[in-house]
Amino acid sequence: MPAGPGRDLAWVIFGADTVVAEIARTPDQRSQGLKDRDFLAPGAGMIFVFDTEEVRSFWMQDTFIPLDIAYLDANARIIDIQQMEPETTRLHTSSGPAMFALEVPQGWFAEMEIAVGAQAEIVFGN
Fold first, then answer.
1. Is the distance from CB of 43 to CB of 102 less than 8 angstroms?
2. For 48-65, what is each residue's pLDDT tens digit?
3. DSSP SS3 for 66
4. What is the residue-averaged pLDDT of the chain?
5. d(CA 96, CA 110)
6. Which end of the chain is less crowded, N or C, counting CB atoms within 10 A of the terminal residue's CB?
7. Can you say how many angstroms the Cα of residue 18 is from the centroid of all Cα atoms in its chain?
8. Where is pLDDT greater, at 97 or 42?
9. Distance between CA 20 and CA 122 in Å, rounded?
10. How far apart are alpha carbons 77 and 71 in whole angstroms?
């Protein structure tokens, strides 16, 4: 395995399972998210990084891939997981304050048997 995830990427590690995630840190990056894409590889995703821990809401307008979203607290523990359907404007609001949101292909968390309460280790690239 390489020494680190590389620039603009993070490894989000749940025990033996790792998501290689693009990082969305700025308001523009968070607004763009995974919009206008038609494919997301298994084990790939996007992590949204916020400066404060607050209740967060996401939607799927102009997003063509069915996704799971996991909301994580400041300690990188999953507090909520929701499935999101493509091209909808329904808000998916976290069940509590979140510092991170991790989007992956729909069904990934269930397939990997990762549930609410799971602890992640987040390794940010340089």
1. no
2. 999 999 999 999 999 999
3. coil
4. 95
5. 21
6. N
7. 12
8. 97
9. 10
10. 8
Structure tokens at 120: 């992640």
Domains contained in the chain, CATH given: 9-124 (2.60.120.1140)
C-alpha of 101 from chain center: 4
Which own/partner contact pairs does 88-92 have at CB distance under 8 Å and 24+ positions apart?
88/59, 88/60, 88/61, 89/59, 89/60, 89/61, 90/59, 90/60, 91/57, 91/58, 91/59, 92/57, 92/58, 92/59
Are the C-beta atoms of 84 and 35 separated by less than 8 Å? Answer: no
pTM of the entire predicted model: 0.95
Structure tokens at 84: 């999101």
CB atoms inside a 10 Å sphere around CB 30: 16
User: Residues 55, 93: contact at Cβ < 8 Å?
Assistant: yes
Q: What is the mean pLDDT of residues 16-37?
A: 96
Closest CA to 98 of 43, 49, 38, 30: 49
* pLDDT score of 40 more than 80: yes
